[in-house]
Amino acid sequence: MFDFKGLVGALFSKRDQEGVFDLKSATVMMQELPESDILQAQLEIVKALKQLNANPKISLKERMKTVPYLDEKARTLQQHLVDIYLGRVIVEHVGPPHVLPTLLAFWAEMGDAYRITLKQAQQTSNRPLDKSMHIFILRGLAYFGQQIKWAYLRYLELDPKVWRNLNRLYLLAEQQGCANTPLQAYPDSEITESRREYLQVLMLALANPERLQSSQIEVLSQWLKRWAGRIDLETQIRPNRQLFAINIAGSTPPKRLRRDMVGENWRYWTTEPLVQHMREVAEQLMQDEVDPAAHGLPEDSAAPANIDLIQGLIELWSRDTPAPIRKFERRTAKKAIHVVRGLDDVIQFLRGERTGSSTARSPALSGRWEVENESAGGVGVTYQSAGDDKLQAGEILGLSGIGNQPFATGIVRRINKTLDGLVHVGIEVLTQTAVIVELSPLGSDRSFFGLYSPDATANPRGRFLLLPQAFFADSREFRLSAQGKIYRIRLSTALEHTARATLTRFAVLEKLGG
Q1: Does residue 225 lie within any of the structural domains?
Q2: What is the CATH number of the domain that holds 411?
Q3: What is the pLDDT of residues 204-234, one digit of tens each?
Q4: pTM, two decimal places
C-alpha cells in the first residue's frame, strides 16, 4: 500500500530542514566543498554547524552521527588556517585577518554542537550517558578551551558564557564518572582525560595572560599539555595547602583561594608538585646541552625569554610567594599623549630629536592615546583599536607628554581589549632620560643602536642598556659610543627579555676615547 501520508510528511520535513540536517546531507555538502579553497570550505562547514545548532528538529541519533563527522572532516582544514594565521604557511591573497573570523567561528560552533548534543542526550533519557558520549565531553572541553586560549592570545575579554559552558561540561564529566577516564579524542591524538584538558585551561587563565606575549601564551599551552597531569582537583577545602579554586557550576574563571569559597560545586588544588617539576625543568633547560624535546617540550622552550617565563610562573604559582600586590598607588588622570611603538622606532625618533627635530613633530609619532590613571611607576592608557593592531605585552614604547621630561621610554605590562575595540594598556616607565648609544661587537666594523638609561636613582634597575635581542649574549663585549666618548663594555646577565629587546646592565672595562 502506498504511504501517501509518509510522502507528504517527507516533503514538508525537507522544506523545513534545508541545508545540513543529518549525516547524509552533511556528506553531500562535504563532497561539494571546493578542494582548492580551504578558507571557503571551512566557511561552508561553519554555516552547516550553525544550521545544525539552530535546528531543534534534528533527532539525537542524527546529531550524534553528524557532529563528529563534520568535526573529523574539518580538523585538517582548521589546522591549515591556524598555520596561515601564525605565519607558518604563506598563501597568496590570504592572510591572518582573512582567516581569523572563520577560525573563531568554527571553534565556537563546534563547541556548541557538542554541548547541544550532550544536552539533548540528557533530556532524552534519565539514564547515564552512553560511554561513547564521553568523547563528546572531552571534545567539547577542548573546543571551549580553544575559545579561551585564542581570546587570551588577542588580549580580548571573554563572554562569561564561554566559562559557563566549559565549567558545566567538566561538571558533566564528573557526574558521568568519566573525568579521570583515559580517552583518545581522535584516532591520531594522544590519550588524555577530561580533567587534564580542563586543568590546562584553568592554569592558562592563572598565568596572567594579559601580561604575556602571544608567543609565550602559545608555548605555555604546549607546556601545560605535559604538566597538567601533576595537578589534581579536590572537593574538600584545605586553605593551608591549596592555592586556587574554581566553581564548576559557575560562569567565572579560577581564582586564588579564599576561605569563603565553600560548596559542593567548588574544586580546589595545590600547585606544589607542578612547581617543583618546573624548577627542575628550568635548571635543566639552562644547561646548553639539554634538548627540550627530550622533555616533550617545544624547541623554543630554552629561549631566554621562555626560561624567564618559567621562573615567573614558579613565583606566581608557588605558595612560598605572597599574592601579587600593586607596587604604586594609582591616581586618576586624563590627558592625551603621543606614542611611538617598537624599540627601532623609538631609537629612530630619538635620533631625529638629536638632529634638531621637535618631540611634538607628529608625523614621527604613531598614535594618540588617552591617559586614564598614573602612578610613580607608570601610566594606564586607553585607545580605540582598528582591528587587530598586534600590540603585545613587552613591547617598547616612546611616550611624549608624561612626566617632567619631553620624552620617556616605557614597556607594555598589561593589555585588556573590550569587545567594542577599546584597549586598556598598563605601561611601566623605564626611563625619562634615555641616551642613544652606538654599539659595535669587538672585532667587527658593524654597529647598531641601543638606549642607555644613565639615571641610577630614577628606577630600581639602576643604569641599564636596552638593545635589540638578537645582539644580546651574556658576557658579550662591545665598543660603546655615546656623546663623543667611547668605552669597552661587557654585558651582564639580562634583567629582562621581551619579544625583540633585552634589558641588561653592563660593566665598563676601559675608556677607549673621548
Answers
A1: no
A2: 2.40.10.220
A3: 999 999 999 999 999 999 999 999 999 999 9
A4: 0.89
